[in-house]
Amino acid sequence: MILLDGKKVSNDIKNEITEEVKKMKAKGEKVPHLAAIIVGNDGASLTYVASKVKACERVGFESTMIRMSNTTSEIELLDKIEELNLNDEIDGFIIQLPLPKQIDTQKVLMAVDPDKDVDGFHPMNFGKMALDMSTFIPATPFGILELLDRYNVETKGKHTVVIGRSHIVGRPMSILMGRKGFPGNSTVTITHSHTKNITQITSQADIIISALGVPNFLKAEMVKDDVVIIDVGITRVADESSPKGYVITGDVDFENVSKKASFITPVPGGVGPMTIAMLLKNTLLARELRHK
Q1: Catalytic residue among 5, 14, 52, 231
Q2: How far apart are CA 214 and CA 103, in angstroms?
Q3: pLDDT for 190-201, tens place per residue?
Q4: 3-state secondary structure of 35
């Protein structure tokens, strides 16, 4: 069993980006600038955005964090997005989700300039991805592809089962794993909450990508020997023995499934660290596109 070490690979990517930025600085060129808008005081969102800002510092990017109150109106947020769309200093920006209930998330994501949409959520970028055109791939799916690529995990002709159909992970992964090229060229089955006999499907899978958010959902008896497991689930589970009072748990019963797997991502330390690394990579791409 080989561990798909997202922590190591994300560090490698950050080092590669740092070198790119050093070359830009040496030539007197503008370095990439990532902005993040956060609305409200959600603890997990604040922590996540802070880690993105820290990652920007680490690689030499400029970064701007825009905090808006929980009572921000949809119009105020749309005005701020338009301001960033028109700001030539900003190469890419993200709107941290979830948004407060008074704001229509879809309308907000539609308002982002597709050329600055480094999260890859705009329908134009999603459509380009589905058509195999060059575009921003959502950071988590992009990170999974990078892990498969860097560990040379064979995907051609394999049966990939995706558990979950969210627009952020499940749906894009199902498209990407079936595309021409590597990683891709696999035969994809999507499963979800209405799928019957899920064990029958997962037990035939060569690759399983689980983005369900149900702790320890995937058990050893649901997979075959030498399966490749990508665990996207991140759930806080109460644990009094832990100093924090909780542990981070994935969708996969790691202890038992890892005994049958050929490759597997740990949680934490697998897909999670890759997400921020790929957001940086998308920002680098946005800067290149804008300064051609």
Answers
A1: 52
A2: 27
A3: 999 899 999 999
A4: strand
| Band of pLDDT at residue 156, cut at 50, 70 and 90 | very high
Global pTM value: 0.94
Annotation says 52 is catalytic: yes
Q: Which residues are annotated as a binding site for NADP(+)?
A: 164-166, 234
Choose, from 96, 117, 206, 231, the residue flagged as catalytic: 96
> Is 171 found in the same domain as 70?
no
Structure token pair of residue 195: 């799928």
CA gap 195, 205 in Å, rounded: 15
d(CA 191, CA 233) in angstroms, rounded, equals 15
Number of domains the chain contains: 2
**Quick check: helix, strand or coil at residue 161?**
strand
Residue 154 CB burial class (10 angstroms; 0-12, 13-18, ≥19) = middle
CA separation for the pair 132, 172 (Å, rounded):
12
Say which residues have a Cβ less than 8 Å from residue 55's Cβ, sequence separation at least 6: 14, 276, 277, 279, 280
Q: Is 200 a catalytic residue?
A: no
Q: Which CATH number characterizes residue 105's domain?
A: 3.40.50.10860
In a domain, 145, yes or no: yes
Residue showing tokens 């558990």: 163
Decide if pLDDT at 47 tops 90: no
Q: Can you give the CATH number for the domain in which 165 is found?
A: 3.40.50.720
Query: What is the per-residue pLDDT across 235-259, written as a single tens digit (0 to 9) for each?
Result: 888 888 888 888 889 999 999 999 9
Q: Which domain holds residue 208?
A: 139-273
Q: Which of 119, 206, 231, 253 is catalytic?
A: 119
Q: What is the rounded CA–CA span in Å between residue 272 and residue 5?
A: 10
Asked, for residue 143, whether it belongs to a domain, the answer is: yes
Let me know if 102 is a catalytic residue.
no
